[in-house]
Design a protein that fits this description.
With about 180 residues, this protein is α+β, with helices and mostly antiparallel strands. A hairpin with a 2-residue loop joins strand 3 and strand 4. The longest helix is centred in the first third of the chain and has 23 residues. It binds zinc ion (ZN). The site of zinc ion (ZN) has 7 residues, from loops. This is ARMC8.
Length: about 180
């Protein structure tokens, strides 16, 4: 979890949110899997929430996302595109093999800036995903929801499985640098 300031939330409140975020990702996993021919197992689920939502253990944003999935029912595969499910200020991003990209990078490093810093010359040729800036989308949905750009937010991230340390991806490091 990365916040815009130092926070003193109960671990329980944060993990409550993350648990439901994880379950949403797990619910989507088989839907994503059906769309590719390779083994797909890893995802990043992220949401931008207000301090109050964490404090009150308010997970209505996740409920709403689940409701969208309930309604879509058999047509679930229509609402996941490009190995991603976006809902308001919440997103689930799969790690894909073709092209080789990981959710952390898609979210925090779409223009490869952070990886260029970490990897130097070895970052050459890494994919620039700048056509979709998920983070900007999340932020603007948050501003939209709360009708202000100034409300401090908390970014909740669940990586399944833990952010990787693979040479060309360095997802753990991307989160570190981003925070
Ligand atoms: Zn990774």
């Amino acid at each position: 979890m990365a916040g815009s300031e130092t926070l003193g939330f109960k671990v329980k409140s944060v993990s409550h949110f993350l648990k439901h975020l994880k379950e949403l990702g797990e619910r989507l996993l088989p839907v994503f899997k059906k769309k590719v021919r390779y083994e797909m197992n890893q995802f990043v689920a992220a949401a931008i929430v207000s301090h109050k939502e964490i404090e009150n253990e308010d997970i209505s944003i996740i409920y709403e996302a689940n409701r969208k999935l309930d309604v879509a029912c058999e047509n679930l595969s229509d609402i996941v595109q490009d190995s991603c499910f976006s809902f308001n200020r919440l997103v689930v991003l799969m790690n894909t093999t073709k092209p080789a990209r990981h959710g952390e990078a898609r979210l925090f490093d779409p223009d490869v800036k952070i990886r260029k810093e970490i990897l130097g010359i070895r970052a050459i040729g890494l994919m620039d995903d700048n056509n979709t800036n998920f983070l900007d989308n999340l932020k603007s949905m948050f501003a939209n929801d709360f009708k202000t750009k100034r409300l401090p937010y908390i970014m909740c991230i669940f990586s399944h499985n833990i952010p990787c340390t693979e040479q060309s991806h360095q997802c753990a490091k991307i989160i570190d640098e981003f925070a």
